[in-house]
Automatic annotation (TrEMBL):
It comes from Protea cynaroides. Its cofactor is Mg(2+). This is GTP-binding protein OBGC, chloroplastic. Belongs to the TRAFAC class OBG-HflX-like GTPase superfamily. OBG GTPase family. InterPro entries: G_OBG (IPR031167), GTP-bd (IPR006073), GTP-bd_Obg/CgtA (IPR014100), GTP-bd_prot_GTP1/OBG_C_sf (IPR036346), GTP1-OBG_CS (IPR006074), GTP1_OBG_dom (IPR006169), GTP1_OBG_dom_sf (IPR036726), OBG_GTPase (IPR045086).
Length: 649
């Protein structure tokens, strides 16, 4: 297949320099390293296959240090998983090797005769594109030493392949691994998280009677339980990632206090506030591998949505007092707070997204047009996380620009890093496509990245975009510019040329983007206005509606093999959950309710027989034909005729 290289020239140049530098320094540092953990074997060309050193922007190709390094494990993980770091060249076509590895996996899957353990190892190697044979274990001393080695800038890397840990404490392991394959640990959970929220349970009501001097027969005075705490989700403008959910994923609101004597109502449970970054989409967690139901998205700082309302407090006996029952010995349990798993997904709220192949100069462009200071270096995947910058114009007009990690061929299928962040571009109104003018085939690079965008999402490909041909300060780029321009013009696209490094042509690009953005915003204004007026509490409203479901609405299903009848209905199930069975009057009330809401009648109609099991919520009973009521050793069969129960709310 024709070479799709974007960086061949760069890497040939770089690799000669870098190898000479790194060989010298690694030899020096190897001798300083007192406790090396793993040693790299010499590569086929006699040179150690070291990862490329970053090259400073200002230093014109001089080796320099990283501006900010991720923790060592992440760095190693990243290196191990991105096989291309081991080769001296990184190019779009490099991922042919990965494709070949994929095919290898398929062959292994088909070939049942291959020994399992052997094939597993090969598949792993194929996945990583890494030949484990290149490393040899020298010393298995404590892992803690690694940090020291790292801090000293030691170039003997402790390569260890570790299973990526799930961000969900053991839940949905397989899904997480598949989804986050190839992403360094520091980035996991950055823009996706799965959290558990639970509204507070209501406090229980109590049975109490007033006893006071000179107040004979003081009457019932058991207070109601307090309401459980609510769960809110709020946008915190200072957050720009979902990183806090990497460690803390459980959010439980406080339960309401129980009621007390002297008609004291229990205190309300404490609310819980889940803070998310602007641009977070919230979904109900779906089954493994499936996307859950969309609930809402929070865009602006300060926006707050009530997610789950707390459970209602149970009524105390004072609430059950009536003309016919002046001494009620009955109280309710507090209502259980609803719980659910939520999927959070952060999509950056940027106006403009800068996309392009790795090393094209995206971060350099952002650093020139805004005050943002992204890491810039002469190696692919310098940018691991999106960077945001604000471009200011006259009249206080601004636009937010996001610089995204580079896209590779196959990115939509998970190669490289860019796909992890493509979703961020979904919210951008306009894209700037930076093309590396120093690459071997800029037209091909352009096509490949466009195709990735299309494959990821057709809507993304439809977004208006501007093409910026970069590195025009280099003669190689100038040579290619004319043919690139002509080929794009033939397709009706008018590309811009610029040199991000010295700022030439960037002004034109920025103004063109801004014009496009203004036009786009105008078009979208109506839709945005509609979106802003959305009711963010609609989830809580649904829960409240479910709670107020009538007790008369239920469905009965029958399992003839076990002679079981299942009565399902939100109202009646809630009633069972709130019934406090330790009071005998509760049992009578329960019988009465079943009679009144028509469960008994329906069961008789459907042909319930003596001894059949009937299940309502947590309650299991046996049908007793003698008086058409449920019978059970626990349940009283006495008539509840004289008990007046309050209307169900
Ligand atoms: N000569 C020249 N070099 C440039 C120009 N723009 C960027 N570079 C260099 O290209 C290299 C890559 O630049 P970055 O801005 O890090 O590229 P990127 O697209 O953000 O790369 P990734 O984050 O890895 O995807 C750096 O060494 C820059 O100095 C330019 O206009 N001219
Ligand atoms: Mg970058």
């Amino acid at each position: 297949m024709a070479s799709l290289s974007t960086c061949v020239a760069l890497h040939t140049l770089y690799s000669a320099q870098a190898r000479a530098n790194t060989r010298r320094s690694s030899q020096r540092k190897l001798s300083q390293n007192r406790n090396p953990k793993l040693k790299l074997r010499t590569g086929p060309n006699g040179l150690p296959p070291l990862p490329p050193s970053p090259v400073d922007l200002s230093g014109g190709g001089e080796a320099t240090t990283y501006i900010r390094l991720p923790p060592k494990e992440d760095f190693v993980d990243d290196l191990v998983q991105s096989s291309n770091f081991f080769s001296s060249e990184v190019k779009l076509s490099d991922f042919e090797a990965v494709k070949a590895a994929e095919e290898k996996i398929l062959i292994h899957e088909n070939d049942r005769a291959v020994d399992d353990s052997e094939s597993e190892e090969e598949i792993l190697e194929a996945n990583l594109g890494l030949d484990f044979g290149k490393f040899e274990l020298l010393d298995q001393n404590s892992v803690g030493d690694n940090d020291d080695d790292y801090d000293n800038g030691d170039e003997v890397l402790g390569f260890q392949y570790e299973e990526p840990e799930s961000f969900l404490d053991g839940e949905d392991d397989s899904e997480g691994e598949e989804k986050e394959k190839g992403v360094p640990a520091v980035m996991r959970c950055f823009d996706r998280a799965k959290i558990y929220v639970k509204a507070g349970d209501g406090g229980n009501g109590v049975v109490a009677f007033r006893r006071e001097k000179y107040v004979p027969l003081g009457g019932p005075s058991g207070g109601d339980g307090g309401k459980g705490g609510n769960v809110y989700v709020e946008v915190d403008g200072s957050m720009n990632s979902l990183l806090p959910f990497r460690k803390n994923i459980h959010f439980r609101a406080g339960r309401g206090s129980h009621g007390q004597g002297k008609n004291q109502v229990g205190a309300k449970g404490e609310d819980v506030l889940v803070k998310v970054a602007p641009g977070t989409v919230i979904r109900e967690a779906g089954k493994a591998g499936e996307q859950g139901k969309f609930l809402f998205e929070l865009l602006h700082p300060g926006q707050r949505a009530q997610m789950l309302p707390g459970g209602r407090g149970g009524r105390g006996n004072a609430s059950f007092k009536s003309g016919t029952n002046k001494v009620p010995k009955i109280a309710e349990n507090g209502e259980k707070g609803m719980e659910m798993w939520l999927e959070l997904e952060l999509k950056l709220v940027a106006d403009v997204g800068i996309v392009g192949a790795p090393n094209a100069g995206k971060s350099t462009l952002l650093s020139v047009i805004s005050a943002a200071q992204p890491t810039i270096a002469n190696y692919p995947f310098t940018t691991l996380l999106p960077n945001l910058g604000v471009v200011s114009f006259d009249y206080d007009e601004t636009m937010v620009v996001a610089d995204l990690p580079g896209l590779l061929e196959g990115a939509h299928r998970g190669f490289g890093l860019g796909h992890e962040f493509l979703r961020h571009t979904e919210r951008c109104s306009v894209l700037v496509h930076v093309v590396d003018g120093w690459g071997q085939q800029p037209e091909y690079e352009f096509e490949a990245v466009r195709l990735e965008l299309e494959l990821f999402s057709p809507e993304l490909a439809e977004k208006p975009y501007i093409v910026a041909f970069n590195k025009m300060d280099l003669p190689e780029a100038v040579e290619k510019w004319t043919s690139f321009k002509e080929s794009l013009q033939a397709r009706g696209i008018e590309p811009f040329c610029m040199s991000a490094v010295n700022g030439q042509g960037t002004r034109e690009v920025v103004y063109a983007v801004y014009e496009l953005l203004k036009k786009r915003k105008k078009e979208n204004q109506e839709a945005e206005g509609w979106a802003d007026s959305l009711n963010l509490n609609h989830v809580a409203d649904i829960v409240n509606k479910q709670r107020s479901a009538s007790i008369n609405e239920f469905e009965i299903s029958h399992d003839s093999s076990s002679n079981t009848w299942l009565v399902v209905g939100a109202g009646i199930q809630r009633f069972v959950q709130m019934t406090n069975w330790k009071y005998s009057e509760s049992v009578r009330r329960f019988q009465h309710v079943l009679e009144a809401c028509g469960v008994n009648k329906s069961l008789i109609k459907l042909g319930v027989k003596e001894g059949d099991r009937v299940i309502v919520g947590e309650m299991e009973m046996v049908w007793d034909n003698s008086n058409d009521k449920f019978g059970s050793s626990n349940l009283s069969k006495s008539s509840a005729g004289s008990v007046k129960w309050p209307k169900w709310k």
